[in-house]
TrEMBL record:
Gene Ontology molecular function: voltage-gated chloride channel activity
Predominant place of localization: membrane
Keyword match Ribonucleoprotein: no
UniProt entry keywords in alphabetical sequence: CBS domain, Chloride, Ion transport, Membrane, Transmembrane, Transmembrane helix, Transport
Pfam families: Voltage_CLC (PF00654)
Listed SUPFAM superfamilies: CBS-domain pair (SSF54631), Clc chloride channel (SSF81340)
Organism: Cryomyces minteri
Family: Belongs to the chloride channel (TC 2.A.49) family.
Source domain of life: Eukaryota
Protein name (database record): Chloride channel protein
Membrane-spanning segments: 98-118, 176-196, 309-332, 344-363, 383-404
UniProt key word Ion transport: yes
Entry membrane topology: Multi-pass membrane protein
Length: 750
C-alpha cells in the first residue's frame, strides 16, 4: 500500500536504526528490488526484516491472519512511535494512544445515523401496504396520525380514527390483494438489490488441500472454481464471525455492501416476512467500523488490531437495533467475537453508548424513547408461578432447538434445487407470497415484526391501551376462543415461516421473528395462568421480574443445548461453507475422540511437496522453489507455505505461499532466471534474498501431544500454521495449517 511522505521519513529513520543488524537483507541495498518491496510491504513490516519473525505481505483473500505476527508487528510500531522526541511526536503519540477511543466514537455515531435512515424509511414503506398519508406520503402511519415526527417529539396521541391516513380500500378482499402485491414488489426490489453484491470468492480445493473422499492420504486435486456469494444477503453475522476469527473475506465490508444492506433491509422488512433489522444492523455497523478503521494506519496495516475495532463496532449494531447498549456489548462478546480482551470491552461499551445516544437524539420513532418496545407489568407473581416460567423456558428451548435443526435441513434440501439455487429472487418471491397469504388474515401478525411485539406487550390496565385489539379481546367474557386460536395460529405460522425465511437472499435477521413467536406464545400462556402475558420485555422501571426471566432463560438454554450444541449462526456458517474455528465447539468435538496431533500430519507426498531441505550454503535453486510454489497453488489453500529444514530434518523456518510468490515473481523478476534464492543466513550483495520473509520461530508441538493441544493453540494463539515435531528427536514430521484443523473438525460433525 503506498505510503505518504511522513511514513517515508519514518521508514528512513527506522532503517537507519537497524542498518547494522547482521541479518538485514541485502535486497534492501538493491535499489530496484527495494522499490518493489516498499510498494508491497508496510513500513512496520519492513522494520521486522531483521527479526526472527520475518515480514508479511497484506493478507490475501480467504486466507488466515497471523495473530502472533501482528502482535509483534504492533509492538514494533509502538516502540518506534514512543522513541521519537519532540512536541510534535509527543502529540502524535497521544493521538495514537487515543485513536481507538476516537474511532469507536465515530463508528457509533455513523452507525446511529444509518440506523435512523433505515428506521424511518422502513416504517413508511411498510405502511404503504395498507395505505398512505394524505398530508405527506413519506410519513408512516404513526407519524401521520399522531404527529410523532422524527427529530422532534410527540405533539399528540393517536386517536381511534385517523383522518390523514387513507387506506387503499375498505373492502377486505381488495385490501388483501393490494397488501400481497406491495409485499411481492418490495421483496423483488430487496432481492434484486442484493444480487448486485454477488462476488466470486477465491477457489479453495474441495479436498481442503489433502483430504479427498474422507481420506487425508489422497493426493491433492486441481483447484475447483471459486464459489459465489451475495455479500449483502442474510444477516451477515456468520461472515462477521468468520472474519473476527481470523479469516479474510474479500469485499465483504466495503461501502457498496453497506449501502445495499441498508437499502435492501428497508424493503425486506417492509414485506412483512419473518425477518428483522438486527442482523443487517450488526453487518452495517461492522462495515462502518472497517471503513473508519482503514483511515487509521494503526488498524489498516494490522489484521489483529482491525479485528479488535470490528468487535467493538458490532456492539453498536445491536445497540441501535433494540436501543440496548449493554445488550449490544454482551452480544458482541458472547455470540460474535472470538478475541475480546478487556480494552475491547470498554471500547465496545463506548461505541454502543455513542450509537444509543445519537439515535435517541435523532428520535426515529418520534416517541423520544430509545427502546424499541417496552411494557409495564401491572401485577406481581407468586412462587408457584416459577413453574410457569420454567414452562416458558422449556418451550423456548424446544422452539430454538427445533428451529436451528429445521432451518439447517431446509437450507440444505430446498436450496439445493437448481431453480432455487440459480434464481434466488424467485425463492424470495415464493416466501413473500406464502408469508403475505398466511399472515394477513391474522390481525396479530399483519404488521412488521417489531410492531407485532409492541402490540403484544401492551398493558391492558391503561386507558389508552385498553382500546387496542389485544386488550378488547382479552376483556371479553364469552370464552374468547377465537382470540386464543389467533394466538396459536400466529405462534405456529411465525415459527414455520421463520424456518423457511432465514437464509433467503435478502438482508435479514432472525432475532425479531424469534421474539415474535415467543411473544405470541407468552401471551397464549398468559390467558391460562393470569400472569402478565409477555414473553419478551424491556422494562426500565421494575426489576421484580428479573429473577423469573433468568429462570426462563437458563432453562431455555439447557433445553436448547440438549437438542444441539450449535446455534443458528454456527449452522449457517456450515451451510455457507465459511471456514470457522470456534474454540469451545472444537474442544467439545476433540474431547470425544482421544486423538493425537499426529492425526493431522499431512501424508508423505504432501510433506515432500511443502518441505525444502536447505543446503549448507543456505541457498536453494530457484526452479525448485517455483515448482513447489506451483504445487502449493494446486492445493488451493492460499495460506499454506513451505517449511525449511536442515541437518536431517531439523526445523529452520517457514515461508508462506504469498510471500514466496511475491519474492519469486515480483522481486525475482529483476534477477537472472537461474539465480539461487537465499532463504537462511546473512545476505550478500547480488543475492536474490528472501530470508526477510522467513519465520524463524514457528510454533511447534509434539506429534504425540493430545489433539486438545492443537485446538487450544490455534484457538487461543490465533496461529496460522503449526509445525509438528517427532517425539524424542525433535525432527520435523508435519505442518498443520488452520484450515486443515477446521476440515478435520468438520469431519467430526458428520
Amino acid at each position: 500500500m503506498p505510503q505518504d511522505i511522513e511514513s517515508a521519513n519514518e521508514r528512513t529513520a527506522l532503517l537507519l536504526h537497524v542498518a547494522n543488524d547482521r541479518r538485514l537483507s541485502a535486497i534492501q541495498q538493491h535499489e530496484e528490488a527495494s522499490s518493489i518491496v516498499k510498494s508491497h510491504v508496510t513500513v512496520e513490516e519492513q522494520a521486522m526484516s531483521g527479526s526472527t519473525v520475518g515480514e508479511r505481505l497484506a493478507y490475501n483473500d480467504y486466507s488466515t491472519i497471523d495473530w502472533l505476527h501482528d502482535l509483534v508487528k504492533d509492538s514494533y510500531r509502538m516502540r518506534f512511535i514512543h522513541s521519537r522526541k519532540g512536541l510534535r511526536y509527543s502529540l502524535y503519540t497521544v493521538f495514537d494512544d487515543c485513536s481507538g477511543w476516537i474511532a469507536v466514537a465515530i463508528i457509533g455515531t455513523l452507525t446511529a445515523c444509518v440506523a435512523f435512515l433505515v428506521d424511518i424509511a422502513e416504517a413508511t414503506v411498510s405502511d404503504w401496504k395498507l395505505g398512505y398519508c394524505t398530508r405527506n406520503p413519506f410519513l408512516n402511519r404513526e407519524a401521520c396520525c399522531g404527529d410523532k415526527t422524527p427529530l422532534l417529539g410527540i405533539a399528540s396521541e393517536i386517536g381511534d380514527e385517523c383522518r390523514y391516513f387513507r387506506v387503499w380500500s375498505t373492502n377486505y378482499g381488495s385490501s388483501f390483494a393490494i397488501y400481497v402485491a406491495w409485499a411481492l414488489l418490495f421483496g423483488v426490489i430487496s432481492s434484486s438489490a442484493t444480487m448486485l453484491t454477488k462476488r466470486s470468492l477465491p477457489a479453495v480445493s474441495d479436498a481442503h488441500g489433502d483430504k479427498q473422499n474422507g481420506s487425508y492420504d489422497a493426493p491433492p486435486q486441481p483447484v475447483a472454481s471459486g464459489k459465489s456469494m451475495y455479500m449483502a444477503a442474510g444477516s451477515g453475522i456468520p461472515e462477521i464471525k468468520t472474519i473476527l476469527s481470523g479469516f479474510v473475506i474479500p469485499n465483504f465490508l466495503d461501502f457498496k455492501v453497506l449501502a445495499v444492506k441498508a437499502f435492501g433491509a428497508v424493503f425486506a422488512v417492509a414485506t412483512g416476512m419473518c425477518l428483522g433489522k438486527e442482523g443487517p444492523f450488526v453487518n452495517i455497523s461492522t462495515c462502518v467500523g472497517y471503513l473508519v478503521g482503514i483511515q487509521f494506519p494503526k488498524y489498516r496495516d494490522n489484521g489483529r488490531k482491525l479485528r479488535e475495532l470490528l468487535s467493538a463496532a458490532c456492539a453498536s449494531g445491536l445497540s441501535v437495533a433494540f436501543g440496548a447498549p449493554i445488550g449490544g456489548v454482551l452480544f458482541s462478546y458472547e455470540e460474535i467475537s472470538t478475541y475480546f480482551p478487556r480494552k475491547v470491552l470498554w471500547r465496545a461499551f463506548l461505541c454502543s453508548l455513542f450509537a444509543a445516544m445519537v439515535l435517541k437524539a435523532l428520535n426515529p420513532t418520534g416517541t423520544g424513547k430509545l427502546v424499541l418496545f417496552e411494557t409495564h407489568y401491572g401485577t406481581s407473581y407468586n412462587p408457584v408461578h416459577y413453574l410457569v416460567f420454567v414452562l416458558l423456558g422449556v418451550a423456548g428451548g424446544v422452539f430454538g432447538g427445533v428451529f436451528c435443526k429445521a432451518n439447517f435441513l431446509w437450507s440444505k434440501w430446498f436450496r439445493s434445487y437448481s431453480i432455487i439455487k440459480d434464481h434466488p429472487v424467485f425463492e424470495v418471491f415464493l416466501v413473500v407470497a406464502a408469508t403475505a397469504l398466511l399472515q394477513y388474515p391474522n390481525p396479530l401478525t399483519r404488521e412488521p415484526g417489531d410492531i407485532v411485539i409492541k402490540n403484544l406487550l401492551v398493558d391492558c390496565n391503561g386507558a389508552a391501551s385498553s382500546r387496542s385489539w389485544v386488550c378488547q379481546n382479552e376483556a371479553r367474557t364469552d370464552g374468547r376462543w377465537d382470540y386464543v386460536g389467533w394466538l396459536t395460529y400466529g405462534t405456529v405460522v411465525k415459527l414455520a415461516l421463520t424456518i423457511i425465511t432465514f437464509g433467503c437472499k435478502v438482508p435479514s435477521g432472525v432475532i425479531i421473528p424469534a421474539l415474535d413467536a415467543g411473544a405470541l406464545f407468552g401471551r397464549l400462556v398468559g390467558q391460562a395462568v393470569g400472569l402478565p402475558s409477555r414473553r419478551v420485555t424491556h422494562d426500565h422501571q421494575l426489576l421484580e421480574y428479573t429473577v423469573p426471566h433468568m429462570v426462563a432463560i437458563l432453562v431455555a438454554k439447557w433445553v436448547a443445548d440438549a437438542l444441539g450444541k450449535e446455534g443458528v449462526y454456527d449452522l449457517a456458517q456450515t451451510v455457507l461453507g465459511h471456514p470457522f474455528l470456534d474454540l469451545d465447539h472444537s474442544l467439545h468435538l476433540v474431547q470425544q475422540q482421544n486423538a493425537l496431533v499426529e492425526h493431522l500430519i499431512p501424508p508423505p507426498q504432501t510433506m515432500a511437496e511443502i518441505t525444502v531441505d536447505v543446503p549448507a550454503s543456505n541457498k536453494v535453486a530457484r526452479g525448485e522453489l517455483a515448482h513447489k510454489l506451483a504445487l502449493l497453488r494446486r492445493r488451493g489453500l492460499m495460506d499454506a507455505g513451505l517449511v525449511l529444514v536442515q541437518n536431517g530434518g531439523m526445523l529452520q523456518g517457514y515461508i508462506a505461499e504469498g510471500e514466496l510468490a511475491f519474492g519469486l515473481e515480483s522481486v525475482g523478476a529483476i534477477f537472472a532466471a537461474d539465480a539461487a534464492v537465499r532463504l537462511l543466513g546473512d545476505g550478500e550483495d547480488g543475492d536474490l534474498d528472501l530470508s526477510m520473509f522467513v519465520d524463524r520461530t514457528p510454533a511447534t508441538v509434539c506429534a504425540k501431544a493430545p489433539m486438545e493441544y492443537a485446538a487450544e493453540m490455534f484457538g487461543k494463539l490465533g496461529l496460522r500454521h503449526l509445525c509438528v515435531l517427532d517425539e524424542g528427536t525433535g525432527r520435523l514430521v508435519g505442518v498443520v495449517i488452520k484450515k486443515r484443523l477446521v476440515a478435520y473438525l468438520d469431519g467430526l460433525k458428520h
